[in-house]
Amino acid sequence: MSTLTEVLIQIGTGAVPLAVAYLAFRSATDANKKTQQTALVQAERQAEMERSKVDAEAFLRAKTIYEDALSQMEKQLNRMQGQAAQVDADLATEQTASTAMRDQINRLQAQIRALERTVVTLRTQLTAAGLSPAPASETTGPYQLRHPPLE
């Protein structure tokens, strides 16, 4: 039995280093997998950070472009409002001048009608007194008012 015991001891002695080697191999393999997984997670995080950085830069560029466009549009709106205010002021001035001229034309037409009635009255009085009125000439009239045709 001593040889059997020796053989078992030798097998046990040989198996222990094999078991230790196997356990070391498994530990190394597990550590290697964890290292690879950690590296993969870190690479994904780094890629996500790069994407975020690119997205942030694109956002800043878009924001700058948008703000510049908005600023340009505000300036253009201010210019247009100024021009509209000037047009309103010019229109009010023109309307005032037009009204004043229309009123003056109406007064002059009323004066012309009054003068024509006076001329008719004076001609009638001259004729009734036995005198003949002076003939109409180019320098003294009578002049016909030309009214624009009504449409």
Report on the architecture of this protein.
The protein is built from 1 helix and no strands. With 151 residues, the protein is an all-alpha fold. The longest helix has 127 residues, at 2-128. The chain is rod-shaped. The model has no long low-confidence stretch (mean pLDDT 85).
Q: Strand tally, please? A: 0
**Largest sheet properties:** none
CA radius of gyration is 57 Å
Query: What is the chain-wise order of helices and strands?
Result: H
Mean pLDDT: 85
**Quaternary arrangement of the chains shown?**
single chain
Class per helix and strand makeup: mainly alpha
Residue share in helix: over 70%
Q: Span from first to last CA?
A: 144 Å
Instruction: Report the total helices.
Output: 1
Measured by DSSP, the beta-strand proportion falls in under 5%
- Give the overall silhouette: rod-shaped
Runs in which pLDDT lies below 50 for 5 or more consecutive residues are: none
What are the defining features of this structure?
single chain; 1 helix; mainly alpha; 151 residues
Summarize the structure.
With 151 residues, this protein is mostly helical. Helices cover 84% and strands 0% of the residues. The longest helix is centred in the middle third of the chain and has 127 residues.
